[in-house]
Amino acid sequence: MAATLKDISRETGINICTVSQVLSNHPKALSVRPEHRKKILETAKRLSYSKNQMAASIAGKHGTVLAFVHSDMGLVEYSGRIQNGVIEAANERGYTLIVLPLEDFSNAELYRKLMGWRVAGVIFHVADLKQISGIAKSLEREKIPYGTVNLSNPGGIGVTTDDAAGVEEAVRLLHKNKHKKPVYVAFATRSKKSASEYKLRRQEGFVRGMKKYYPDCEDVEPLYLDPKKAFDQKYMTGILKKLLEMQVDGIVCESDVPAVALNNAAAVSGFSVPQTFSLIGFGGSMLAETSFPKITTVVQDFEEMGKLTANAIIDKIGKKSEERFSSQLIPVSILVRDSLKKKK
User: Fold this and answer.
1) pLDDT category, 192, cuts 50, 70, 90?
2) Whole-angstrom distance between the N-terminal and C-terminal Cα of the chain?
3) How many domains are contained in the chain?
4) 30 lies in which domain range?
């Protein structure tokens, strides 16, 4: 359990009222003897005490602090936009948000930190539920609601985008504009079992789209890239050569990163997009917007994902939602830009 005022009082031999005054910076703490103040602060630090800013929590009610716990997801932009949505929802409903990087703590340390803040709910932004299985069990034991954003959470709160539908729509767009040979480009993983949910769903969308719009095409396997070499000119030139040999005229990428990498490779090799092939990315990132030409991309509403997740958790805290929550898929859209060759 997290350290309490009683724990610090017992450790220091100083009465709990004085301990509380020092740790809350109460005006009366000015009259506390310096050596007692130092002892209290040092003990609080040693016991990993985190100040509880919610009087409601002390009274046994739910508090007004939410935690946003995130792992290293590669592209900071996405996490930041999700966090903005969470902050907006939290502010609108009178909650404070703390942000904690998952990799900075062990399960035990994260648990103590969350309990110290008396969090009322937790939003996780991670790639896989396995990353939070330990801390999730602790939260369930404490009856603290939690949810995942940009990741489904079977049986719990989870909000993400309908990625499969987005990629299927990208294939439809290529078909509508008379492309003959689309291919799906993705970053390689160690195995299918280790692939993130979004990778599996987006590939599923491509397979679905190919069956619907290109039923005679039997080869729907992705062309995999080494994620560490996406911006290695020699490596990407080799990938470009392979695509040209395959006579590919439309490329759907699992994210904006490989789309931009392919666009760069084409440019330095003397080929132009979309004259050589069309490119469609996924994510709606600044990378796609600042590329030349600008990349057509499947747009995810990251802010909305954050807001919906935070509101679902707050509803559960306030006992407005007693029903079992099922993972929610929100729609995506395609932003058509100059990287798509349109039929004449």
Assistant:
1) low
2) 67
3) 3
4) 5-46
What stretches of the chain show up as alpha helix (H) in DSSP? Answer: 5-12, 16-23, 34-46, 55-58, 76-92, 107-116, 133-141, 163-176, 197-213, 233-245, 256-268, 286-290, 302-317
Specify the CATH number for the domain of residue 141: 3.40.50.2300
Local structure of 275: helix, strand or coil: coil
DSSP one-letter code for 324: P
Residues 121 and 80 in one domain: yes
Structure tokens that stand for 297 in this block: 């991309």
The Cα diameter of the chain in Å comes to 84
Instruction: Please tell me whether the overall predicted TM-score, pTM, comes out greater than 0.70 for this model.
Output: yes
Q: Which among 258, 303, 263, 281 has a CA at the least distance from the CA of 77?
A: 303
- Distance (Å, rounded) from C-alpha 96 to C-alpha 108? 23
What pLDDT digit, counting tens, does each position of 79-133 carry?
889 999 999 999 999 999 999 999 989 999 999 999 988 899 999 999 999 999 9
